[in-house]
Automatic annotation (TrEMBL):
Family per similarity comment: Belongs to the LysR transcriptional regulatory family.
The protein's name in its UniProt record: LysR family transcriptional regulator
All copies of domain HTH lysR-type, residue ranges: 9-66
Key words of the record: DNA-binding, Transcription, Transcription regulation
DNA-binding in keyword set: yes
Length: 301
């Protein structure tokens, strides 16, 4: 071991000294370090004895750094910064990337697939902001967004089709067994219709019943599509949902498609990002993963 390294004082003592110099109070320093006030005082005394220099003036209610202490702590802080930088280079922090999505997209599609993303990209710390409000890429610190709409979405933004908005009417198989298939006879009148904020039941039923649909038993309205889907799974009525949100439920038999038809929504799901993103490599990795996952169209049971 080099002689210069052997002459170094205790690193633990230096750490305690730096905290005490910042707090100028042994009790507060002890709280930050999670040790007793006596242990802090002992470490500082030991360091002063080892250096042969007085680092603090002990005043009645506080501490004051001596001239030697002020000079020394500046160098010690820089040394700790160098250690932190070296450690960060050796073990880099994950790249933080924020994606803005709707609550339904987050709960019904993205979150179930996150383990696949984490396995493929352990170096990216993905932060999900789920909100119906359209995020601003500059002021909200968003790097990528999944938006339900039609391009263009704004100047300086790149948009790529992720999913077509294809709507399917669904219900619990237990409810169908109890009330009969809603497309047969007057059975639709026995079913509550579960609406979301898009309110696309009227055009769907006009397609399904050329002679005009019978009145539903009642209408239940939700502000989130995910809530209407959960209500349908629980047997509370008929839901009209984007196929991408119910793939797993259809595959597992929790929901059954009805009417033998689909409705194209007036808008689709797009992946949107600035043309000049802040973290271009990470944004590209997330974009490619999302497009790949959407293209596979895998159902999750």
């Amino acid at each position: 071991m080099p002689e210069s390294v052997r002459r170094l004082p205790s690193l633990n003592g230096l750490r305690v000294f730096e905290v005490a110099a910042r707090q100028l109070n042994f009790r507060v320093a002890a709280e930050e370090l999670g040790v007793t006030q006596g242990a802090v005082a002992q470490q500082v005394r030991g360091l002063e004895a080892e250096l042969g220099v007085k680092l603090f003036e002990r005043l009645p209610r506080t501490l004051a750094l001596t001239e030697a202490g002020r000079s020394y702590v500046a160098h010690i802080r820089r040394a700790f910064e160098l250690i932190a930088e070296a450690t960060g280079t050796l073990r880099p922090e994950p790249q933080h990337l924020t994606i803005s999505v709707t609550p339904t997209f987050a709960s019904r599609w993205l979150i179930p697939r996150l383990p696949d993303f984490t396995a493929a990209h352990p170096d990216i710390d993905l932060r999900i902001v789920a909100n119906d409000r359209i995020a601003n890429f500059q002021t909200d610190g968003v790097d990528l967004a999944v938006r339900h709409g039609r391009p263009p979405f704004g100047p300086g933004l790149h948009a790529e089709l992720l999913f077509e908005h294809v709507l399917v009417a669904v219900a619990s198989p237990l409810l169908i067994e109890k009330l009969g298939r809603p497309e047969e006879g007057a059975n639709l009148g026995r079913y509550p219709l579960l609406h979301d904020a898009h309110d696309l039941w009227p055009p769907f039923l006009e397609q399904a019943f050329r002679m005009g649909p019978p009145a539903a038993a009642k209408n239940i309205r939700f502000n989130q599509t995910s809530l209407a889907i959960e209500a349908a799974i629980a047997g509370q009525g008929l839901a009209l949902a984007s196929r991408l949100f119910i793939e797993g439920d259809l595959a597992a038999g929790r929901l059954v498609p009805l009417f033998g038809r689909e409705l194209r929504g007036g808008s689709d799901f797009y992946l949107v990002s600035p043309r000049k993103p802040r973290h271009a490599a990470s944004v590209n990795d997330v974009r490619q993963w999302l497009v790949s996952a959407a293209g596979r169209g895998q159902a999750l049971a």
